């Protein structure tokens, strides 16, 4: 049974858990993100490192998916993927991206805009070596984002790679798989407030200096 539009329109949640002012936040947005991320961990938010990554596809449309944040560096935020996937191809054409974190349990979100670059190979090697063996084999086996006729094709490739790497103590990282670093130039911290009068603090980077301002909800 289809949900009537009027029922969807009636769904609402009043936010009243907290507030956010210019005096509450640090001068550096990456450090402020770390504070909020630690609070999300303490609150046991479901997958606090899950983030929506938006790229621009070859037709000029935004393309979004959820990926996992794997490191917070002074210069930005890192994630890993197949370089030949749709997002990898998008990033090869256009380095401009956005990230979105939503922590519903805390009534918070963080929006990040920036440019992406490859992580050093050593960083990708180190992270790949830390992954469970099944995930390593999965990276080798999946032609990510490509059309496949059936799941059995994927499962057969996994079996082939399991045999190939069976006697190897260390599985090497595929050359087509690795990390990216998103270097932000704009970050917005959003705290839900009652009556949709939300608090929004935005940081903008100009000439290596961050400025912060309040935005109207």
Give short descriptive properties of this protein.
28% helix; nine-stranded antiparallel sheet; 6 helices; 217 residues; 9 strands; single chain; Pnp Oxidase, Chain A; 34% strand; alpha+beta
Label the structural class: alpha+beta
DSSP strand content: 25-35%
CATH topology: Pnp Oxidase, Chain A
H/E order of the elements?
HHEEEEHEEHHHEEE
CATH class membership: Mainly Beta
Q: Which CATH architecture would you pick?
A: Roll
Number of helices: 6
Number of strands: 9
Summarize model confidence as the mean pLDDT.
Answer: 95
> How does the major sheet shape up?
9 strands, antiparallel
**Poorly predicted ranges (pLDDT <50, ≥5 residues)?**
none
Classify the oligomer.
single chain
Calculate the terminal CA-CA distance, rounded to whole Å.
35 Å
Helix % is 25-40%
Estimate the global geometry from the Cα principal axes: globular
**CATH H level: which superfamily?**
Electron Transport, Fmn-binding Protein, Chain A
- Gyration radius over CA: 20 Å
**How many domains, as an integer?**
1
